[in-house]
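batch_manifest entry 22 of 60
target: 3-hydroxy-3-methylglutaryl CoA synthase
source organism: Streptococcus varani
requested by: lab member K.T.
priority: normal
notes from requester: please return tokens only, no post-processing; we will run our own comparison against the previous entry in this batch. if the run fails, retry once and flag.
--- input ---
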Amino acid sequence: MNIGIDKIGFSAPNYVLDLADLAQARNIDPNKFKLGLLQSQMAVSPVTQDIVTLGAQAAQAILSEEDKAEIDMVIVGTESSIDQSKAASVFIHGLLDLNPFARSIEIKEACYGATAGLVLAMSHIAQHPNSKVLVIASDIAKYGIASAGEPTQGAGAIAMLVTADPAIMILQDDNVCQTRDIMDFWRPNDDKYPRVDGKFSTEQYTDCLTTTFDQYKKRTGKELADFAAVCLHIPFSKQGLKGIQALTTEDEETLNRLSERFQEAIVYNKLVGNIYTGSIFLSLLSLLENSQTIEAGDDILFYSYGSGAVCEIFSGRLVPGYKEHLQTDRLEKLKQRTPLSVQDYEKIFFEEIQTDEKGNAIDLPKDDAAFALIDIQDFKRIYRKN
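--- output ---
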């Protein structure tokens, strides 16, 4: 049985910050962001948008009424959870009015969580071929004003419908994982922002990639030259490029070819920033919608990495007719976002919801987005679907 991605959608907040403006405000050479990180813009999420609203919007864009009736599992991968107990997928399930007899869960392991969700979805479909599973990667990357990670921030969500006989990509059964108990990136419960050992984390990203790929080659017999493209976790675009370079130290022809595809695979990432669990799948979407070279039958290699650390390498094969299930105007839509000054960005992105002693929101801003957080009453988050 062939199992994989039948539909894929994306959502981002309607606000954007140009990193050249941020560089000027921080007295930094703009090329440090544009060339050093390969990042150009950052999606900025208001306080009324979170992983629930972004995830619901990404899913709503791709689901038919038939899909909603047949989905019997909803999985959200995130590291931006809005509740220590209730899964974001339960909120999303309600907002989308999905089949009530469904399982809804949330998975956490830094930026790797949605990949784990994808694997779980495949196992479920293998046992229940007529089922459909909605896998959502939704995150808001936030590090603080003038922090080292500030230019890599971002916000957004990817939604994938996983089915038998998929219309976009068949996922191969060749997954290889690795776990390391390290502290390269972590977020204590009582901290507002994550803590990062930046140099150590980038070193671990690369070492996990190369050692896991060595094991992948041993188990599968596949080589890098067998793949039309590589999609990697993109904390910032330059890190992904360094990853490809680390894999192709001796094969210059393969390096050049995969580097060209990589540039197509980061078109959206450069304009959105880091969306944690979704960044690898945003890269896939960018590749599919911007490459004029890849075609049906091509194999694509994936490297998912979540600090702490868990990583996984796997592959997928493009299905004939996959291009018919993609958007052709996504870049134009990204250009229509509302640009922010640095001052407005600092106000919107870092605003915090104020509540009274009874847990009721005070002066929560209005939001006319498709899905929005409209209130908090007695510590309960209340969402609206327009």
